[in-house]
Specification:
Shape: globular
Distance between the termini: 51 Å
Structural class: alpha+beta
Number of strands: 15
Order of helices and strands: EEEEHHEEEEEHEEEEHEEHHH
Helix content: 25-40%
Number of helices: 7
Radius of gyration: 23 Å
Strand content: 15-25%
Largest sheet: 6 strands, mixed
């Protein structure tokens, strides 16, 4: 395969890219590709490589090629472990006080805290699993894992990562978002979230990625054998969303922070000014039905399925099952009657 690079004096550089294809038809990301640092710097000292065009690739997790010089952005491990261990120590202290000082409330509080620790244990152990990374970056491009690190039990034969060459990132920016929703547990109470995202503008065809993101949302939890029987668990956590054609938004709650990632991208693409947004999902009743459904679909796409179901029931009445069906229909791009 020949890649032509044009500058003031037109030149051509040949690179051989491997044509190995996996049995399921998902190609590996290129092991040898144009390296940005090898090309002449543009005016101003930045190494703009938007003219390099290696098509975006969908990959299985095990097909991602890693290297010692990769910059990896993942969920913090030590912080989560320290918080969980602090909770465990508090639980032990409550039981110890209840036993030694005959303080009965200690057993009650200790049991509730112990239950909370058991429910959150997955959030700690998953951070030590190999799947705990959101973005890997090297000199040829970036790998983005659109499957939540919490759902590592899903089939490894499905694509869950996409590769973008540096030339396919037309621009990038930081998006700060304030999201207000109704509390499904406390009616009439508003809960506020402050979120950070990286927004990437793509120069290539986004259709395959859009289909992959939609397929990921349709994934079903596989049954798992437990000591008490069989159960299934699926976390409604979707770190990557396509907000418009050619624009993807990556929820950034990993370390290093968003500014570090943008600084790493700065030599290769345009970094736009950050923007601040406010999303208010608390006044849906004043909207038209079409706008209500758009807002409900947006809520569910963010992973806020419980909040979207609660809001749908408040808007349209009916049973909990009917509200869930409404939200699922919206996620499937089917307008409910």
């Amino acid at each position: 395969m020949t890649i032509a690079v044009h500058d003031a004096a037109t030149s051509q550089i040949d690179r051989d890219l491997p044509a190995a294809i996996e049995p399921i038809g998902l190609p590996r990301a290129p092991t040898r590709a144009p390296i940005a640092s090898n090309y002449p710097q543009q005016p101003g000292g930045s190494k703009l490589v938007s003219f390099i065009c290696i098509p975006m690739r969908l990959l299985r997790f095990r097909d991602v090629e890693t290297g010692p010089n990769d910059r990896v952005f993942r969920h913090a491990r030590l912080r989560a472990l320290m918080v969980w261990l602090a909770g465990f120590a508090a639980t032990a202290a409550l039981f110890f006080k209840a036993f030694t000082q005959k303080w009965s409330p200690g057993y009650i509080f200790g049991l509730f805290l112990l239950l909370f620790l058991l429910l959150t244990l997955r959030f700690v152990t998953a951070r030590f699993h190999p799947s705990n990374w959101l973005v890997r970056m090297n000199e040829t491009g970036i790998y983005v894992q659109y499957r939540s690190y919490l759902n590592y039990q899903l089939s490894a034969d499905d694509p869950s990562v996409f590769f973008l060459s540096l030339g396919e990132v037309a621009s990038a920016r930081l998006v700060k978002e304030r999201v207000e929703t109704s509390d499904p547990v406390k009616p009439g109470v508003t809960q506020t979230q402050y979120l950070g995202h990286i927004e990437l503008e793509l120069s290539g065809d986004p259709a395959p990625l859009a289909e992959a993101l939609q397929a990921e949302r349709a994934e079903q939890a596989p049954p798992e054998k437990r000591w008490y029987g069989t159960s299934s668990t699926l976390y409604r956590d979707y770190p990557v969303r396509m907000i418009a054609p050619k624009f993807i938004r990556i929820h950034w709650d990993v370390v290093p922070g968003a500014h570090k990632f943008l600084d790493a991208l700065r030599p290769y693409t345009v970094i736009d000014e950050p923007v601040s947004l406010t999303q208010d999902f608390t006044h849906l009743k004043s909207l038209s039905r079409d706008d209500q459904q758009k807002q409900l679909r947006e809520l569910a796409a963010r992973g806020e399925v419980i909040t979207a179901t609660y809001a749908a029931r408040q808007l349209y009445g009916g049973s909990l099952a009917e509200a869930k069906q409404t939200v699922n229909s919206l996620l499937s791009n089917k307008v409910p009657q």
